[in-house]
Amino acid sequence: MPKQAELPVIQRKGGYFLRKSFEGKQREISLGKNSKNAKSRAIRFLATAETSGFEVAMAELRKKPYVKAGANPTFEEMAILYRDFCQQSANPPRPQTITHNLARLKCVMKRGGFKTVGSIDKSTLRRKWFGENTPTPTDNRTFASAISAASGVFKRSALAYYKARSIPLHNPFSGLEIVKPKVSPYVPISAEIREKIWNDCQTELDPPNALIVLMALGIGMRRSEIEAATPEWFSRQQDKVLVHIREEKHFQPKTGESGVVPIAISLYDTLLRLRGESESSYFVASDSEKTGAGRIWERVRVVNRWLKEKGLNNRKPLHALRKECGSLVAKSMGILEASKVLRNTPQVCAIHYAGIAELNTVDVAKTFMPKKDPFSQVAEQLGITPEEVRSKLGIS
Fold it and tell me: Which CATH superfamily is domain 191-393 in?
């Protein structure tokens, strides 16, 4: 039994971790954030691993049932396996992605009436999902999204990990026919409605709610980014202000990467005026004591209702403001700049904004570098020919 001073415990952002090789693989096991508890957990873990094996030690540490070799996992057991895989992965998914993938798998199994992973029948899944109803394009999109996320639990590297634990599985959704609706380009709102939203939000909404509107429409920020933003995200330069969208304690950027968006000083001054003497550690004050995800959710509800009253009849009004920002940037500065502002790939931006005939896109041809021909890829998703895509983008 190693002494406490000899324990292979390391400390870094997020708490304490036991770093040691088990079964020929280097592992990092989370021990929590309390230093005293971390040491006792490490000692207990090493003792159990030595006598009963690594998997039993992991189950004991997490106080979760041990998944036996050859099992046909239930959802709860599958969640344990998938989280174990993600923890030992050299490039693990984001925590939000892990939670989302498992939530979609749970939804699929519940709606299909499947008790175990092995009982998932892809031939009856679609019928059980939709019942007797004729699916709409939105229904098809929801179904396709759910299957795509649930399939993430069974990607190739994960299946190899399960097999190494003597639990051979396959992707139950492999080969499932999914009707993916065509993606339509974003249709910009009228200048009149846009100006009305911009001006009226400052007089008709509470300052924190007006901030949400301006940060989406003026900066192109996602709801989660507005929610996590702190005053430190904004740095004033000589002729502009830079918004540094970066990882925080309760937030990780959607793509896992930070981004920098330049905005006009006049917009920043307006934001500061609306923020006033707020004592909140966040840029946008919450209307509750909650921190992390969902902190400003009630404010977002109010904003969405207000935007619909102003004539913005999109399914997600606040997110439509972000797309409107991208549309304005794409029209004036091109797809490449729009992709930088929105922190999306140029391909995604082209799909959303290719319907704007007057786009200035001289850099698009040099920017697109996917494995598949970019114009064929965009054309396929828009339901038009590659030649029409080139024409809309002004590229011969």
Answer: Intergrase catalytic core (1.10.443.10)
